[in-house]
Specification:
This protein is of the alpha/beta class. It folds into 2 domains: 211 residues, Rossmann fold, CATH 3.40.50; 52 residues, no CATH class. The strands form 2 sheets. It has a 5-stranded parallel β-sheet with strand order 2-3-1-4-5, with helices on both faces. A two-stranded antiparallel ribbon has the order 6-7. Helix 10 crosses helix 11 and helix 10 packs antiparallel against helix 12. The N and C termini lie far apart (46 Å).
Length: 328
């Protein structure tokens, strides 16, 4: 999948995005996306994560309920067809900061793009990411320590969960190579086109951070802002219940076919979908258990070098902000 240069599209009346929220996941990207899309001078498509430019993260299969991602550049650009001429169009794919290919492919199509990245303290970020990957069936190991111990094997294709459609995400340590990831964008777009936000700043003052982004995008930053808490971290209460709800929703396996047949007969599609979502919220998902503090400390020791490198790269003391100054 090769992205055509912007010049080749000039006669097609297709809209190029003006900005990209490139990640990371579980670092406020969904909340930022939802707050920005309420601004009348900004257009963000309903499809939050098209992942189009992360060619190194192509899924090994498409989940049954995931929808159809854009395959061609024209399909991708059609996401922005409804943007008004005076609006800033953008998208948010949290994989783009992790991806080794996304920055270059975005620059090829839209060299004038503005890039927004969000960084979070590594240990808490990886814990939240792991919980999300378990929730979305990318990860099967419910213990973070165990999951991270499998990174080497999984890089070689071993112990990859059967339902994991993007096993690249299971390389947890790769997610927190912050200075390396940012350099890919700075090298191609320059510092004036790249805005780096810190998750903890965003959590402390959503409104101030959003106004900072609005100024970066050169739109009106004086409008009222609706503060939202989107994509909260959850945990699985029951693997068995999750498997059953997933099986009924996708219709896989003899038990699921029988259960789905009964549910389909008794309920219309809209009600059926609502019931499945309610079952996930009430029976499958719950509040996560407190983190394993000893492992969190171990992770902070492991990634202190990455935090120091990011601090130097951004000329901001993330070591102190994230509490790494007390780690030996």
């Amino acid at each position: 999948m090769h992205a055509e240069p912007a010049a080749a599209l000039s006669g097609r009346a297709l809209r190029l995005p003006d900005f990209f929220i490139v990640g990371h996941a579980k670092s406020g990207t969904t909340a930022l996306y939802e707050m920005l899309r309420r601004h009348p001078e900004i257009y963000l498509p309903d499809s939050k994560e098209p992942w189009f430019f992360a060619s190194d993260m192509r899924p090994r299969f498409e989940p049954r309920l995931a929808g159809t991602p854009p395959e061609t550049l024209e399909e991708y650009l059609s996401l922005f067809a409804d943007a008004e001429p005076g609006q800033r169009a953008g998208e948010a794919s949290s994989s783009y900061l992790w991806s080794r290919t996304a920055a270059a492919r975005i620059a090829e199509v839209q060299p004038a793009a503005r890039i927004i990245a969000i960084l979070r303290e590594p240990a808490s970020f990886l814990r939240s990411l792991h919980l999300q990957l378990v929730q979305t069936h990318v990860e099967s190991q419910r213990d973070l320590r165990t999951a991270m111990s499998l990174e080497s094997d999984r890089r070689r294709g071993k112990h990859v969960p059967r339902r994991s459609h993007r096993p690249q995400l299971l390389q947890y340590a790769d997610h927190v190579r912050y200075s390396e990831q940012l350099k890919r964008y700075h090298d191609l777009f320059g510092s004036e086109q790249v805005q780096v936000l810190i998750y903890e700043d965003f959590r402390a003052d959503n409104e101030a951070t959003v106004r900072q982004v609005l100024r970066f995008l050169e739109v009106d930053d004086t409008r009222p802002i609706e503060v939202l808490d989107a994509n909260p971290t959850v945990a699985l209460r029951s693997q068995q219940l999750d498997e059953l709800v997933h099986a009924v929703s996708t219709g896989r396996g003899p038990l699921s076919n029988a259960a789905k047949s009964i549910v389909t007969t008794l309920t219309p599609r809209r009600v059926r979908r609502s019931l499945l979502q309610l079952a996930q919220r009430r029976l499958v998902h719950g509040r996560p258990l407190p983190p394993d503090e000893s492992f969190m400390l171990e992770l902070r020791g492991r990634f202190r070098g990455e935090v120091e490198a990011a601090s130097e790269y951004l000329d901001r003391d993330l070591v102190k902000l994230w509490g790494y100054d007390s780690i030996g």
